[in-house]
Amino acid sequence: MNKVYEIFGSNVFNDSVMKERLPEEIYIALKSTVKEGKTIDSGIADTVANAMKEWAIEKGATHFTHWFQPLTGITAEKHDSFISPTDDGHIIMEFSGKELIKGEPDASSFPSGGLRATFEARGYTAWDPSSYAFVKDETLCIPTAFCSYSGEALDQKTPLLRSMEAINKQALRIVRLFGYTDVKRVNVTVGPEQEYFLVDKKLYDKRPDLIFCGRTLIGAMPPKGQEMNDHYFGVIKPRVASFMRELDDELWKLGVLAKTEHNEVAPAQHELAPVFTTTNIAADHNQITMEMMKKIALRHGLVCLLHEKPYDGVNGSGKHNNWSLCTDTGINFLKPGKNPDKNPLFLLTLAAIIKAVDEHQELLRISVATAGNDHRLGANEAPPAIISIFLGDELTDILESIANGVEHDNAKRIKMNIGADIIPVIRKDNTDRNRTSPFAFTGNKFEFRMLGSASSISDTNVMLNIMTADVFESFADRLEKADDLNTEINLIIKEVMQEHRKIIFNGDGYSDEWKAEAEKRGLLNLKSTVDALPLLKSESNIALFEKHKVLSRTEINSRVDIVLENYTKTVHIEALTLIDMMNRGVIPAITKYTDSLCGAVLNKKSIAAVDTSVEEGLIARLSAANREIYTLTESLKMEVASAEVTTDNIERAREYHDKILKLMGDIREFTDSAESVIPPEYWPYPSYGELLFNI
Ligand code: ADP
Ligand code: MG
């Protein structure tokens, strides 16, 4: 096998390739455009395009594509070849600056939430030069943003880039207050940990629910689930290990900093964590990671399930979005540091985040709202749907001392005045233990744990960026005018704690006591996508997004429409799949087994001494279950038909949530209890036991 440093980034048009292949003045011009977030000069583009093409052809590429992330949640590509005919009947390989900068995919089939009428099918894609181009499947992939013809964002990347500008602007003001005048840019750094399940392809192929929905809709629990926790950090099985090795290799070639691979709590569940990087690149890399996981799993006879809740009764999958702010000179806003007395920036940033998260709880909840993730949030193994912040006792104490104007406990060597005194170096262990918090401070970053495993990380980071930018703006307005910086910072922290300490919770987020306590504190508990999503359209949220130029009113409205539509479509497909599985799989299976029991009873009846009460008991139980399943399936069909003619999209989503998902749950209960008494040879689908333990 190749050395890692040899293959790393070998399929990426990265900085060193550019340096080597671009004329010096072009290289410098491109770099400064990227660094300062300016728009690209078309003169530079031609030269860059040509160099990119030459390089890509050497890597075996014949095609190029603008690689983008429409609101379907997955990436999209439209491949064009480089070839261009010549007069003498031959071809040349061509790629112009124009083709690099802008593409016009026929975009009519991507969701636009009414933003783009189908007759105006032309959306366009625009090159994001801050994310490197790469070669994958003989195709040069150019990361791009995707907009409607009138410039409205139709994708995940555009608002993300805009939100990075918004926070850069305000964070620069903050950092300059502390005398860091050499800082030119503040970047948001993100490291998303990705969870996933692997399942044997042969078993997967026998489960219509996995094929069509990505999750099981039925399935009785095997005798052993995850209660032993023996899978967690356990030895990785050879088949999985070879998958992971190949995955690392392929990701490294694409410049993705895959770092840690390990087993997760549930059987057949695993996690991959990359080294953190700038947000938009982290988001691109996470998309590439998910794509590669699926592709490479197939090469090993496995299927990678990215769904948030593939199996009931065992843990679901999420993403942990590790988030921080870092200047181009290397200062991490959230690093307590060895000399925190010279770093009140840290405490001010903490205060900003506390205020931002409390004031905008619903935005974080909305950013993770999907049909799949609804099954996970609020269950007893995932963060609750209630947003709260875990700071750890030490940090909470420090902030409380400042708020109350008292000396902090000296035993901890912390004093209250942040101007001159010291804050202890926060040991990671102190802050990392609470795994039940949805939003936890973990040493030098915040970790948001509510994201679903299948979604893009963009929405969450858009929210974090814009919320924090907004609070930073209000802080900067005050601090720039203040006579004494430290006095004003103390005052700000005091106010923040008074108004927002209710969002801080260091206890067990899974407990019922917390639900009750959170309600007392007046925190939001938005249980489903349908509860959460419409809040995005509130006037205050629209004002926030417009003020920071991240999304316009029209763009917000279209997004709400799209997410609701995705929600109803997802549940719709699930309902149809379940109906099909009942009618053609489960009902006939129960009937067949009941028949054989009846046969046995008739047979035995001829001999008076044989007891048939067991068979008769089973017959009674199974035929009753079958009748219930049949009746409920008929009701489900009718509910789906009635939901489909509901025109208001919020109301329709509600029906799917309140009635259809409920009915599906009822059907499942009867089905699972039947499955648990029917011999496997009668059951049409592989069991949970096989799916979870047969790798
Ligand atoms: P765990 O949360 O499982 O303990 P780690 O502590 O190894 O995992 O880190 C989780 C993720 O946090 C990694 O992807 C890492 O790169 C990322 N991370 C570390 N520092 C930062 C930072 N300053 N900004 C953003 N992400 C970071
Ligand atoms: Mg983590």
Q: Which short descriptors sum up this protein?
A:
about 700 residues, alpha+beta, Ubiquitin-like (UB roll), Creatine Kinase, Chain A, domain 2, Four Helix Bundle (Hemerythrin (Met), subunit A), nine-stranded mixed sheet, 17 strands, globular, binds adenosine-5'-diphosphate, binds magnesium ion
In short:
The chain has 695 residues and is α+β, with helices and mostly antiparallel strands. The protein is built from 24 helices and 17 strands. The protein folds into 3 domains: 3-155, Glutamine synthetase, N-terminal domain (Ubiquitin-like (UB roll), Roll), CATH 3.10.20; 164-551, Glutamine synthetase/guanido kinase, catalytic domain (Creatine Kinase, Chain A, domain 2, 2-Layer Sandwich); 566-693, Up-down Bundle (Four Helix Bundle (Hemerythrin (Met), subunit A)), CATH 1.20.120.
What does this structure look like?
By secondary structure, the chain is an alpha+beta fold. It has three domains: 3-155, Glutamine synthetase, N-terminal domain (Ubiquitin-like (UB roll)), CATH 3.10.20; 164-551, 2-Layer Sandwich (Creatine Kinase, Chain A, domain 2), CATH 3.30.590.10; 566-693, Four Helix Bundle (Hemerythrin (Met), subunit A), CATH 1.20.120.1560. The protein contains 24 helices and 17 strands. Strands 9, 10, 11, 12, 13, 14, 15, 16 and 17 form a nine-stranded mixed sheet that branches. Strands 1, 2, 5, 6, 7 and 8 form a six-stranded mixed sheet that branches. The chain has a two-stranded antiparallel ribbon with strand order 3-4. α11 packs parallel to α17 and α12 (361-367) packs antiparallel against α16 (458-481). The two termini are 25 Å apart. Residues 413-431 have low confidence and may be disordered. The structure holds adenosine-5'-diphosphate and magnesium ion.
